[in-house]
Design brief:
Elements: H1 2-19, H2 23-33, H3 39-48, H4 53-85, E1 92-95, E2 108-110, E3 113-118, H5 128-143, E4 149-154, H6 158-164, H7 170-173, H8 178-188, H9 195-202, E5 207-210
Parallel strand pairs: 3-4, 4-5
Antiparallel strand pairs: 1-2, 2-3
């Protein structure tokens, strides 16, 4: 274990050294410096600034590890929240803690509720991919037929609610999901064009809940 920690530490140090503070500024300088270089000058240049297979391998390792971090956040966040959100007499019936297709419909199902979790640190800017994922989860919960209470747990409700009450076009949100867009129009009419149009129809069906207080 100690060897793995040291390896990761060395990789991070290699990457940090290459970044030299601001990676954007560093790359901008390099882009200008290599203009007119031939193969020999490029080779010498890379050697001088320590761009090597070691740097590439270090970045690749950190990328592999960081991909698993999302799964750790998702699973640990759900597990930590359970003690705070479960009511007396409420028990877990199923949970989906991993990434990808686990064969389970929702992240959490108890005898009282179904729930999806979005552990996203919203920035408040243009976050279209995150918004798309949030809408998909909201839609799946809203359309699912059950007598159980439906929850969408988020890290801070301000930005998610701003998006759901906003005017982004469904054709944009569902640009890669035409079947879901068609399903909405077939069921609710073509006048449901923006996110807020659909949210107004279904906002009483799904509780948007800030999970932060339960992560203790």
């Amino acid at each position: 274990m100690e060897n793995k920690v040291e390896a990761v530490k060395e990789c991070l140090e290699t990457i940090e050294k290459f970044k030299s503070g601001s990676l954007t500024k560093r790359l901008s300088r390099i882009e200008k410096e290599i203009v007119g270089f031939d193969d020999q000058k490029i080779q010498n240049f890379c050697k001088n600034i320590e761009v090597s297979t070691r740097l590439l391998e270090s970045a690749a390792l950190i990328k592999r590890l960081s991909a698993e971090i999302d799964v750790v956040i998702h699973s640990s966040g759900i597990l930590l929240s359970l003690a705070g959100i479960l009511n007396d007499g409420e028990v877990v019936e199923s949970a989906s803690l991993g990434a990808g297709n686990t064969g389970k419909k929702f992240d959490l199902e108890t005898n009282h509720r179904i729930a999806e979790y979005k552990f996203i640190n919203w920035k408040g800017g243009s976050e279209s991919i995150r918004q798309n994922g949030l809408f998909k989860d909201f839609y799946e919960l809203a359309e699912f037929e059950t007598e159980k209470i439906k929850y969408l747990y988020v890290l801070g409700a301000t930005h998610p609610l701003k998006f759901l009450n906003g005017g982004r076009a469904l054709t944009s949100v569902l640009s890669k999901d035409p079947l879901r867009l068609k399903a909405i129009h077939d069921k609710y009419g073509a006048d449901v064009r923006q996110v807020r149009d659909y949210y107004d129809l279904k906002k009483d069906d799904v509780i948007i809940c800030d999970v932060t207080p339960f992560l203790v």
